[in-house]
Write a structure and sequence with these properties.
The protein is an alpha+beta fold. Helix 7 runs antiparallel to helix 8 and helix 7 runs parallel beside helix 9.
Length: 350
């Protein structure tokens, strides 16, 4: 009748999921989440070095520390860039950092003889001795009439790609709103599924469909948070507002996959009254699994392409989506429906 007997081995799937969730909770309790400036407040500079060998992190840190700025986090990005995170700084200090970096890493300007315009001034003659003549000169850029002071003002080797500054109050407010957004989404999902399946009261109550979907979503979110907890500890990857956007997207994607399976269960409850609830769940999963896998596979192809060829600024946002699609597909098949079987057995065992 059907090939994949998911419900017959639901203890295996739930055990695997439980172990992953427990490992994620342990990781979160030990390492926590490496929150970015979106939630903690501070300043972030994204700089890129052009046409020169990328300096090491210690050189960049030394220059910024010399400007009396502490608690700096520097993360490599791309082949020639760094992301620099630091406490909130003023615009004056921001420009001072850029100037200091350019002064350090931009080579002196090479002025050709034809481009030199030398102005003699302040000639002080003391007596008839020519050695007493003091001549001050300055080199003028003939194109801009600006004095060249040690660095090439026409070409700067340090280019700023992005600069963000967020105060601690705004960061705390954003953190609270993010938590509320996730909570409201979860409540809305439960209410929607309970309403949609309101006419399905046997053998499992309609609200338990919503609860099973929430268990699957909780499974997906906790595992992804656990993975990013480890990445934050090992690779200094930070959680920002993009990550919250990814989580909300994952919730929507995962519950959509789960509802497709639940909807088929609802249809089969009316059409296949000859089957036991266990066999009916297996049949419904087998009828929808090809659709779920094909949808997830095509989505992963697109996300993988963006992850490989897209910009560094959205790379970890895409990584969160990739993990969400993988675990969301898994939970829709191997967590949500087995959870329904758990409620069924619990009810009739009583």
């Amino acid at each position: 009748m059907y090939k994949l007997k998911v419900i017959g081995k639901n203890k295996i799937w739930l055990t695997i999921s439980s172990l992953l969730v427990i490992a994620s909770i342990i990781s979160l309790s030990i390492f926590g989440l490496n929150l970015g400036i979106d939630f903690t407040g501070g300043s972030m500079m994204n700089i890129e070095f052009k046409d020169i060998t990328k300096p090491n992190i210690d050189e960049v840190r030394e220059i910024i520390n010399s400007l009396e700025i502490e608690q700096i986090k520097i993360q490599p990005i791309g082949e020639n860039g760094y992301i620099i995170r630091m406490p909130a700084i003023s615009e004056e200090k921001h420009q001072e950092i850029l100037s200091a970096l350019n002064k350090k890493f931009t080579p002196p300007k090479e002025v050709n003889e034809d481009e030199k315009n030398i102005e003699n001034k302040n000639i002080e003659i003391a007596g008839d001795n020519i050695e007493d003549v003091k001549i001050e000169t300055k080199v003028i850029n003939p194109h801009t009439s600006e004095k060249v002071e040690g660095i090439n003002q026409d070409i700067k080797m340090v280019e700023e790609k992005k600069f963000d500054a967020i105060g601690p109050v705004i960061g705390q407010e954003l953190k609270e709103k993010s938590l509320w957004a996730i909570l409201i989404v979860l409540i809305a999902i439960v209410l929607y599924i309970a309403y949609t399946f309101r006419k399905v009261s046997k053998p499992v109550e309609s609200w338990k469909y919503g609860l099973s979907a929430i268990i699957a979503l909780f499974h997906d979110v906790i595992i992804i948070l656990g993975i990013f907890s480890v990445l934050g500890y090992t690779l200094n990857i930070e959680i920002d507002s993009f990550f919250i956007t990814a989580l909300l997207t994952i919730l929507g994607y995962s519950v959509n996959d789960t509802i497709v399976t639940f909807d088929r269960i609802r249809e089969n409850l009316h059409k296949r009254t000859d089957l036991t609830f266990k066999d009916l769940l297996n049949l419904s999963i087998n009828e929808t699994i090809t659709r779920s896998l094909n949808t997830s596979f095509t989505t992963l192809i697109v996300l993988a392409s963006v992850f490989i060829f897209g910009g560094d600024s959205i790379r970890f946002f895409i990584l969160a989506l990739i993990l969400g699609v993988i675990f969301g597909t898994y939970s829709s098949i191997f967590v949500a429906s087995p959870a329904l079987m758990f409620w069924y057995r619990l009810k009739y065992k009583r």
